[in-house]
Amino acid sequence: MKSVDELRIKIFADGADLSSMLEMNAKSYIQGLTTNPTLMRKAGITDYARFAKDVLKEITQKPISFEVFSDELSEMMRQGVEIASWGKNVYVKIPITTTLGESTAPVIEHLTSRGVKVNVTALMTQDQVRHVSEVLNPFIPSYVSIFAGRIADTGRNPIPIMKEAIDILKEHTLCELIWASPRELLNIIQAEEIGCHVITATNDILKKLELVGYDLKSYSLDTVKMFNKDALEAGYKL
User: pTM of the predicted model, to two decimals?
Assistant: First the structure.
């Protein structure tokens, strides 16, 4: 099995805690970062722009995605332009639709025609990928994020969808496919094996990277020792 340093897939850290983001940014195997309004709310962020600008004072080289939060296309466009102005390494996250299911293709076209780098997010079907591929600017770097973990949550295997997405986007040489919302470390290996460009992961998954390639017999022994230690410390008796 490959070591972390041998993986070809780019690993992006997903989160909204500044100290954790800086910790991940300092690691050589983390090649980018992402966040979203849900993560920011959970982290207690109340001032969106201030938080983003504080992050960008420290993270200046690696790509980082911040999401628009309007549900109106025209306001998405305005927010996208403003967010993009915060840094050269910023990608603007655009959800694939509004909350009413209206396509955000006009927003994607508007922003990329002005040189804004986008991260089209929350995709789950091949048709959505095809739709996005038709409006991406081939001369502007972009990401397309398929929520493979959420697809798996429905009992469906996301790998065939991810493989087809890679094929659909192959002519967009500046577009990279993101395997989003992974549920376990194995997803990083799976994404690597099918040739996915990027995977985003939260810190709880990223902390398991040190286990990649770890000897299973040793891991078994570690587990036995853990059970024994916890039983002794609990003082269990029969």
Answer: 0.94
